[in-house]
Amino acid sequence: MKQYEVFELVLNGQPPEGSEALAEVNAVFSLDGQEKEVKGFYDGNGVYKVRFLPEKCGVYSWKVSGAVVDEGTEECVPGDGHGLVRAEKTHFVYEDGSRYIPFGTTIYALVHQEDALVRETMESLKKAPFNKVRHCVFPKSYEFNQNEPPCFAFEKDGDGKWDVNRPNYKFWERLEKAILELADMGIETDLILFHPYDRWGFATMTAEENEIYLRYAIRRLAAFPSVWWSMANEYDICFAKTVEDWARFEEIIKEEDPYGHLLSNHYCMKPYDNSRENITHLSMQNILFYKAPQWIREYKKPLIYDECCYEGDIHLSWGNISAEEMVHRFWCAYCDGAFATHGETFLSDDDVLWWAKGGKLKGKSPEGIAFLREVMESLPGALEPWDEPVWTLYEPDLQDGDAPADLMENPFFKLHASLTEAERDALNLKDSAYCGHYEEKAFIKYYGIQQPGRSCMFLPKNHTYRIELIDTRERKKSVLMNGASGTVWFDMPGKEKMAVFAIATS
Amino acid sequence: MKQYEVFELVLNGQPPEGSEALAEVNAVFSLDGQEKEVKGFYDGNGVYKVRFLPEKCGVYSWKVSGAVVDEGTEECVPGDGHGLVRAEKTHFVYEDGSRYIPFGTTIYALVHQEDALVRETMESLKKAPFNKVRHCVFPKSYEFNQNEPPCFAFEKDGDGKWDVNRPNYKFWERLEKAILELADMGIETDLILFHPYDRWGFATMTAEENEIYLRYAIRRLAAFPSVWWSMANEYDICFAKTVEDWARFEEIIKEEDPYGHLLSNHYCMKPYDNSRENITHLSMQNILFYKAPQWIREYKKPLIYDECCYEGDIHLSWGNISAEEMVHRFWCAYCDGAFATHGETFLSDDDVLWWAKGGKLKGKSPEGIAFLREVMESLPGALEPWDEPVWTLYEPDLQDGDAPADLMENPFFKLHASLTEAERDALNLKDSAYCGHYEEKAFIKYYGIQQPGRSCMFLPKNHTYRIELIDTRERKKSVLMNGASGTVWFDMPGKEKMAVFAIATS
């Protein structure tokens, strides 16, 4: 047993008489007087399994009851893993405290492709900058997704209907193999539990069937540290499910998941209620990057733009942006203290589009995202939104970065404070740079489509900073000034897609 | 007297005893039993003038009363002018029915520069694609605007305060000379009557002073066919004026302007109430191009994005976009059936920035705007927003462009219909192409940052069309297909900033 790695007990017994999916296997793992209850599951052929994710080292005693019975002890020693990724304030961190900044990509039907293609996808991921993949339990039926998957999550009953009580063990093993292979590359699985793009009947299962499926899936997968639960891709167009269904799914997941994996619910047009207690982070589909500071502060949770369009050239507007635009959107998100997820949809004679099936990456955005990842990981800590004190721009006598005491007496600021949200949004869309900071140790400003030839930063006066210029297109850094403190002005190249960052040197 | 040209009577008399600005000069021009009352004005040195804009041909009889008295007849014959630009539905047209599509630029303090610079500006405009200039009556005090103007609109009183009752005739002559010189080049003057960027006291005149100034200005200028009244640049930060003041200004303008020139009120953060009857068109400051169809339909008036940032490289975010971005914004606006206004703010050693002072154009966006103008003027009529029937994209069985009868039974469309305005905006920002049409004769679609390798148009089945591809960056057109009808698919180059348009050939 190794800390942060799946520990699996394999026990033989009689096959379940009722539902194979809900076979009753209860286990308790105890360490230092603390008990953790986990559920086991049936894996076919008279085999029951109990999986446990040890998060502490020491000698555990364990006891299994129900359809199979056994007990024992096992010493847990340190391993190489970092444990679950958790939400900490408005960013993410591994259970062991190691840094994790998500740089995701999307391969919805990853495990529903033939082995050779899955193989190719894994090889592509080895060379790519991604450390999270959004993929689905259920296969996908949609444009560019007409192929049949090699296998399905359940067996069929005599009427040809899916029988959720009889899992297809081959499928689950295949899914787990992919999750583990991704994990070996340091890639988290943002596992999509439901989605609407279906021609087989998975999207229209009854509430009872959904519950059986969910309980089984979570009992099998909750011990995998790299798994996140994404309740849906586009929950709001899962028309067979109601708001109450989603709330119920949250509760089922909570009951079955002893570790508290990350949990989100992704939408198409109507955001899910991300203020809900079980929701650990925002999984958004929009390109309103200027709203990130507002949402991060409002929800106090990490924010991932999980769908901000895909690099590609298909006819659908969500799948035909350029590499430069994709990378630009990433910079907008990360510099605001949020995160984004990549996808790729290039027309292809063989109908293999990365976003759905994987294969080879054809686009250029991964190079830009790799550079962004390098820059972000070089920062001393996790970014939060930064409201640079811009009033100094409008109050030329106040060049020292201090807020004037009578700021709100200034009619300009009074007017600004009186704007409706729509008016403020319109202003922010037009004016926004994307600014983040880590305490007083790092400040970053991404200018996006602005191309100033001269700019400024309003830095704390009690530190000095090295200011670096980043050309996000050329992927080059250069030092603009050393020893910067307080309000500093500097020349810039008058080009788009530039960032500056200030790193405290004292 | 020529149709659509200023006719001026010059009459000598005793200088006014009271206000020179409000000197009482009433004139009536009669033709075919129809009378038009116009006010004259005092022009200094015992000279009174009455200006009249004849809009019909024929023999007018006229009669002047008040401070000076005279009468006579004058035959009006056809001239070269086209008359006032008027709002017709959601676009503009000259009084004589000729086409006018505004392609404006911004030179706020045009007439407040030394003669040599004004000269240079006029030379630049000769070579530029612009047919409207936004400029101010009052000089501008702001960053890059620190110079004193050659003259002001009024004389000062003994206390050094502006005396609005004593116009500075030299100033008004200078302003009129500029307006006429612009008009000779086919350029309309969008004359800004008030603005907040002031260090001389014009922004803080009393309501009474404002009224005297306005009445004088309009009596002098209303007969110039090329003048539009822009009540303010950024009315909402004219903090010395209230909403009631602006409503009062509308009434004063209405009283003094016998012709009904175009009238708008431009804002900084809070749009003016553009539903007001006197307001002829929307003068907006934002980059929400995807909102154009909604606003055009809501207000049923033309919409000009009079400030959608400027090409340049200054530190302020509204003044540092690239030429490509500026041209892109123009395409967005025009293809939606709206209009936009250019400006340029490049840092310069001599502090001459086009947006404020004129001079030479340094940017590259005028070339792109010239090309857009050529394309727009080649269309058979004025564009209106076009809602392409996109449901076919989501209903693959309905490839013929017909709306399914049970469209609103489709849960996808039900969901779409239930979105809040903010949710719909978020979707439109992400998904929007910019689409316009002129009847069934022309359809245009601008893909903006989308770069599809394949796309489609849903055209009427009762006509055939020639479809042209436009590369807005390369400024090149090519024919994609002839004889297109109904739903047509075509390959595209998979590049950004492309447009297609379909012109009916039968």
TrEMBL record, chains A, B:
Question: Domain Apiosidase-like catalytic, which positions?
Answer: 88-339
Spell out where the chain crosses the membrane.
none
Query: What highest taxon heads this organism's lineage?
Result: Bacteria
State the Pfam families in the record.
Answer: Apiosidase, DUF5060, DUF5605
Residues forming the DUF5060 domain are 2-65
Which residues belong to any copy of the DUF5605 domain?
Answer: 434-500
Q: What is this protein called?
A: DUF4038 domain-containing protein
Q: Which PANTHER family match?
A: DUF4038 DOMAIN-CONTAINING PROTEIN, LMO1036 PROTEIN
